[in-house]
Design goal:
By secondary structure, the chain is α+β, with helices and mostly antiparallel strands. The chain has 2 domains: 1-135 and 172-276 and 435-497, 3-Layer(bba) Sandwich (FAD/NAD(P)-binding domain); 136-170 and 278-349 and 374-428, Cholesterol Oxidase, domain 2. The protein has 12 helices and 25 strands. It has helices at residues 16-23, 44-47, 100-108, 116-130, 140-151, 183-187, 241-248, 254-259, 380-396, 399-402, 418-428, 480-496, and strands spanning 3-10, 31-35, 64-65, 77-78, 133-134, 167-170, 172-173, 175-176, 179-180, 198-202, 206-211, 217-222, 225-235, 251-252, 266-267, 278-279, 282-291, 300-304, 316-322, 337-347, 355-357, 368-370, 405-410, 430-431, 463-465. Strands 1, 2, 10, 11, 12, 13 and 25 form a 7-stranded mixed sheet that branches. Strands 6-18-19-20-17-23 form a 6-stranded antiparallel sheet. Helix 1 runs parallel beside helix 12, helix 4 (116-130) packs across helix 12 (480-496) and helix 9 (380-396) crosses helix 11 (418-428). The longest helix is centred in the last third of the chain and has 17 residues, at 380-396. It is globular, with a radius of gyration of 22 Å.
Length: 497
């Protein structure tokens, strides 16, 4: 007989750990949290934030490959965490609230209750748990970058997780010193002290959601057997694996499921509307080594509008990276001195949309991920990254940073025309590791929505999704704190019935 709990939560990541901890605050209910990866507790390679490059392409990384890109970089590896705490155990802890104008767009698009007023207290709860610190300004080249941004006319801010205005400054992080404050650290540690009504199970893979004859979620089939849910199943497996689990369970586009011989239980646009922040890069050789005592290697940022755009907020986040950019996408290990830095322009509100689909009916197969970077019909994304490359060069020309530069390595000073720069940017652009949207939230009658504003899966009772996959439109900053906020709000929605 299957074990039975009131709530079964699939995925102990950024949102799932929050949902589980909050639901378990009610001693009268039982909660089971299923995480496919191992625990992060007692693992310094995870908990010590400066060691984050070691996690890329490691045992803690699903390391998903992309489908070949028609207009983008086909060699992208999408790092997704396979560990308790999810990507909050795997990222560089850059902590930002979604700008109010982005949340107003959510609400205007049908996500009732998800505007600034409906989410503010949940962001507050997250930051009360995780804390917020500013990376110490001890990186000499990063300090020169900030000064160069000021010389170019941008004000310096002490960011209080507010990314909705132009300016430059040191990046806020959800960390305490050099220790990350992930969702697992902030909501579950120590695991020996979690409430008795919360059962945290690591290294247990969810295979399918169990649906009864009436089409209601009744539990989860796992690698360790079935687990039943008296009240609800809540899927928090992430932007790629939440749609994968729904599809394997017969919840998704009827045509796709039928082609794989999967019984259709709910015909929904699961796996569509994949959105992400594409990021270009300009790399410079320095005249002298960069001191690198910082926590994240990515200490400073410029938020800026692009010329000729009429956006409410910044169109670009221009990141300062110590070292060659590829050192952030491979396991770099210890680096004491660096003789290069990279400026990475991030398109804050991209318009290209991709898909997540199944490769087969085998739960062990990774999903097929096709971001379709730079394919929006208006060409907005490539025009914006072009403006980002130009902005990077303009900042590099300012006296404070020019003193650091020996020469431009990529794309190189000989690359000057817009067509050449756009071709370079598309070919070398990477992901900012902010995928979202594959189980889009919207009004109950929105044909593009998978979940309603209560996070309930349309047409399936007792089933919700709560993670970055429900994000209806891209926010102009890093999304991890927003994913934790989704977990906080989900717990209250579940408690409200």
């Amino acid at each position: 007989m299957a074990e039975e709990f009131d709530y079964v939560i699939v995925g102990g990541g950024s949102a799932g750990a929050v949902v589980a901890a909050r639901l378990a605050e009610d001693a009268g209910v039982s909660v089971c949290l299923l995480e496919a990866g191992p625990s992060d507790e007692g693992k310094p390679e995870i908990l010590e934030l400066p060691r984050w490059p070691e996690l890329l392409q490691s045992e803690y990384d699903y390391d998903y490959a992309m489908e070949a890109q028609e207009r983008g970089n086909s060699d992208i590896r999408h790092s997704r965490a396979r560990v308790l705490g999810g990507c909050s155990s795997h990222n560089i802890c850059q902590a930002w609230r979604a700008p109010d104008y982005d949340l107003r767009a959510w609400e205007a698009g049908g996500a009732a209750g998800w505007g600034p007023e409906g989410t503010r207290r949940y962001y507050d709860r997250v930051l009360e748990r995780t804390g917020l610190e500013h990376d110490s300004p001890d990186n000499d080249a990063a300090a020169a970058f900030i000064e160069a941004c000021k010389q170019a006319g941008y004000p310096e801010h002490t960011w209080d997780a507010d990314g909705g205005r132009e300016g430059t400054g040191w990046v806020p992080v959800n960390a305490k010193g050099k220790l990350r404050r992930s969702s697992s650290v902030s909501y579950l540690h120590p695991l020996s002290g979690v409430p008795q009504n919360l059962d945290v199970r690591t290294e247990v893979q969810a295979l399918r959601i169990l649906l009864d004859e009436e089409g209601s979620a009744s539990g989860v089939e796992t690698s360790d057997g079935e687990v039943s849910a008296r009240r609800e199943v809540i899927v928090c497996a992430g932007v790629f694996d939440s749609p994968k689990l729904l599809l394997l369970s017969g919840i998704g586009p009827a045509g796709q499921l039928g082609d794989l011989g999967i019984q259709v239980r709910a015909d929904l646009p699961v796996g569509e509307h994949l959105i992400d922040h594409p990021e270009g890069v300009v790399i410079y050789r320095t005249t002298r080594p960069i001191r690198q005592p910082s926590t994240t290697w990515c200490d400073a940022v410029l938020l800026a509008k692009a010329p000729g755009y009429e956006s409410e907020g910044p169109d670009l986040m221009l990141w300062f990276f110590s070292g060659h950019f590829e050192e952030f996408t491979t396991k770099a290990g210890e680096v004491d001195e660096m003789t290069a830095f990279s400026l990475g322009p991030d398109v804050t509100h991209p318009r290209s949309e991709g898909t997540v689909t199944l490769r087969s009916t085998d739960p062990s197969d990774p999903p097929r991920i096709d971001p379709r970077y730079f394919t929006d019909p208006e060409g907005y994304d490539e025009r914006t990254v072009l403006e980002g490359v130009k902005l990077a060069r303009r900042i590099a020309e300012q006296p404070a940073l020019a003193d650091w530069i020996e020469r431009e390595l990529q794309p190189g000073p000989e690359v000057t025309s817009d067509d050449e720069l756009m071709a370079y940017a598309r070919a070398t652009a990477y992901t900012a590791f902010h995928p979202a949207g594959t189980c889009k939230m919207g009004a109950p009658d929105d044909p593009r929505a998978v979940v309603d504003p209560e996070l309930r899966v349309r047409g399936v009772r007792r089933l919700r999704v709560a993670d970055g996959s429900i994000i209806p439109s891209m926010i102009g900053v890093n999304i991890n704190i927003t994913c934790m906020m989704i977990g906080e709000k989900c717990a209250d929605l579940v408690k409200a019935g």
